[in-house]
Amino acid sequence: MKLFKKKLTLISVVSALVLALALGGVAGCGSTQSGDTGATKKGPTIKISSKTFTEAQLLGTMSLQYLQSKGYPVENKMGLGELAVIRPALESKQIDMYWEYTGTGILALMKADPIFEEKAAYKAIKDWDAKNGIAWLDYAPLNDTYAIVTPKEVADKYNLKTTSDYVNLLKSGTHLKFVSFVEWDERADGLPAFEKTYDFKMPKGDIVDVAMGLNYDTLKNKKGDLALAFTTEPRILTDNLVALKDDKQAFPVYNAAPVVRQEILDAYPDLAKDLKALSSVIDTATITDLNKQVDVDKKSIEEVSTAFLKSKGLIK
Which domains does the chain have, with CATH numbers? Predict the structure, then answer.
């Protein structure tokens, strides 16, 4: 499951041949685009890239189209690869910008313990990466993290609105089937952190471990009552699920932010301000709906991006 891999991937030793082919291939297929309104800004072409999954390509494409409309010279290098490929590409100046998640930066780049408060997480990775000549611009309100979801009929039956409501139900002796993944059950920032934060112990008999990606079908087939999910997945909408509020912040934050080489930021003093106008309007509900338009409604990423930017008055 691409969203799960996005968060769990650590930077590993990647074969020089694979990396060279990935970078070379993207460099060969990139397209340069200049602004279509007003004079093109003078300066280096900004090579904008993304990871491969829908959400990442949406964020990258929206940035590309928006900056193009503002007169920046940009080059399209979308879908380069996941962290082990795209981060070295940024560091080696093969690309200049892509969107990354604060939680991914903290766990995979800093190799630090997870952080559960968004401002603290952002400051930690921003300060750490500054020494590498890489700037983390203002993050978006969207938080693509873990969530506990349940069918609406289950939420209504037990009056479940927050994670505390669910935990209190367990403590009262009610047993509900919880659909999970073995890896999350064992991860330090997974079930153990969840149990510690909410001061309870998940009954082993309540856990239904399934392969990644089968959590929604398990709920749909009524073989589970609640499930681990991610906050921006379209099936929360299509399956009419309720995401319980993580009222005690058991789950690490994964706010998305544009990550840019400092040289590019120095060349364009207004770039951070311009991108803030974009990032500030992308919250969790918004990106979930945009993901749905691509993955479920089968619209193109470019079409969805353009429509969203126009709806926010960011492009004409």
Answer: 2-143+255-311 (3.40.190.10), 146-244 (3.40.190.120)
